[in-house]
Each structure stands twice: as structure tokens, then as C-alpha cells.
Design goal:
single chain, about 200 residues, alpha/beta, Nucleotidyltransferase, domain 5, 8 helices, 5 strands, globular
Length: about 200
């Protein structure tokens, strides 16, 4: 079964507009968590959709533009570092996902959410799909929009916080990033609750 066929299974149940939702940035030590919601047009299939983590940066960037041009609707949202610290990363992720859905210009009939949790209070039926970013075309598209958007945002922050070299690691806990945190301490976009073992 292709990822477009996976989504068509839900359309065959009467859900004409199927929305995929995914996030990027749950694991990093710095920066917001992003989420995207995408309603693809089955009449305009996009080749090469897959889990964003399995795609090269160049391929993600190319698909990012194709998704924005061909989707029936899409939305990108995020939760701030402050919200991650206040609510915890899972709840902040759910909040970003809900924001992405609520900001869609077209109301979907059903929502497919990557992972084993769905945000509370969504306006239509929602289904959590384990490994959905590999199974569902619309979730794959959402994972690409979220990942590219977050990476671009972290590159923009690089100029504000040059000593941390965010453009190289995007806030993830690489050896370089951990070394720089230990050298310079943390800044306002670091998730302090993620750094307890690093800043001992």
C-alpha cells in the first residue's frame, strides 16, 4: 500500500478531506517545537513524500515548496520554549499540533496524527497513527513542513546567538552543541529542563 492509498482508506470511510499532522523538534535542547497540518489534493499527487528524517535536506527543501504549491490547505505552528518549560514537551507538542489544525483555511473531515497521542479538543475525528510519517502521505507532508520550517527558524537564530552555532545542529544535543553549552552556559532559547545533566 502506498502512502496515498493509506489516506484514501480514510476517504473511503466518508472523510473527504483528510488532514495529516506531525511535529518536529521534540528532542532538541533548544528552540521551539514545530507542528504542521496538511490537507493534500489527491488529484495533485506529490512524488517522494516520506518521513522527513529519511530525506536529505535538499530533498526536503524541494518537497516543502511542492507541498505548499499543491496542497489544498496547510498550516505551520509552534510552541515556544517557555511553553515547553511550563507544560512539558508532550503537552507543548500537542498544543502546537492543535494550533496548526485550527489555523487551516479549510476545515478537514478527519485528522491523522503521527504517534500514539492526539491533541484534545480537535474539531473533527482524529486518529493517532504509529509511524504515520512513513505510512500516510498527508502526515509525511506535515513532517516535511514542520522539519524544514523549524530548521530555517533555528538558522535564523544563529545570527542572534552565534556562539552556539545553531545552523550546524539546529538545537539538537550533538557533541558540538553540548560542548558549547558547557563553555558558554545556556541562553534564553535553551530548554533548561533538558539541560540538568549537562549543566551539573
Amino acid at each position: 500500500m502506498t502512502n496515498y492509498e493509506f489516506d484514501s482508506e480514510y476517504r473511503s470511510k466518508g472523510y473527504k478531506l483528510v488532514c495529516g499532522v506531525d511535529e518536529a523538534g521534540r528532542g532538541p535542547l533548544a528552540g521551539p517545537v514545530f507542528a504542521a497540518a496538511v490537507i493534500l489534493d489527491p488529484e495533485k499527487p506529490i512524488e517522494g513524500l516520506n518521513d522527513s528524517k529519511k530525506l536529505s535536506e535538499k530533498k526536503r527543501e524541494m518537497l516543502f515548496e511542492q507541498i505548499r504549491e499543491n496542497a489544498l490547505a496547510y498550516s505551520i505552528a509552534f510552541s515556544t520554549v517557555e511553553e515547553i518549560e511550563e507544560y512539558n514537551i508532550l503537552q507543548a507538542t500537542m498544543l502546537a499540533m492543535k494550533r496548526a489544525v485550527e489555523q487551516l483555511s479549510v476545515k478537514p473531515d478527519a485528522i491523522l496524527v503521527d504517534g500514539n497521542c492526539t491533541p484534545h479538543g480537535l474539531p473533527v475525528p482524529a486518529y493517532n497513527i504509529i509511524k504515520g510519517d512513513s505510512l500516510s502521505a498527508s502526515i509525511s507532508a506535515a513532517s516535511i513542513l514542520a522539519k524544514v520550517s523549524r530548521d530555517r527558524y533555528m538558522c535564523e537564530l544563529d545570527s542572534d546567538y552565534p556562539c552556539y552555532q545553531f545552523s550546524k545542529h539546529k538545537g539538537y544535543g550533538t557533541a558540538l552543541h553540548i560542548q558549547l553549552i558547557q563553555q558558554y552556559g545556556c541562553c534564553s532559547i535553551h530548554r533548561r529542563s533538558f539541560l540538568t545533566n549537562i549543566l551539573k
